[in-house]
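Lab channel / #folding
Pinned by the channel admin:
"Please post every new chain as: sequence first, then the structure tokens as a reply. Keep commentary short and put observations after the output so the thread stays searchable."

First post following the new format, from NK:
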Amino acid sequence: MRSSNTSAQLVYQKSLALKDLSNAIANYFSYDGNFFSYDQKLGLRNDIAYALLIDASLIAVTVEQATKSSSKTLRNKNLTFVNVMTRNILSYCNGLEKDGVKEKEYINLLRREIKVFRKSFKQWRKSLIISDD
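Reply from TO:
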């Protein structure tokens, strides 16, 4: 369980980094100085940015819950939930891109961060499955 504890700390740190990056990107894309003219694109971008922020925050919380959980079924449920949220974040990136965001570098940065997180998450998940057997 020691090795999974070390990898759990690494996954948790990466989830916090993902949360920070998502927070910065959500704040960047949701900000617009012209609040009085309601534009359909502005509303959609704000919705996507908010959903991005919520899912990234939930990833960190769910990883922490899975780490502390002693129940195998609850841990598996949390691990599945993290997978769903990472796929959602990738979908939000696609949504922002299709909405016409010009700063695609930020979206690609978030995609790369998700890939790095998922790689370490998969390794951690495998170590949990091995230690449960």
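NK: Confidence is low (pLDDT under 50) at residues 33-37.
TO: also worth noting, Helices lie at 2-30, 40-68, 72-98, 104-132.
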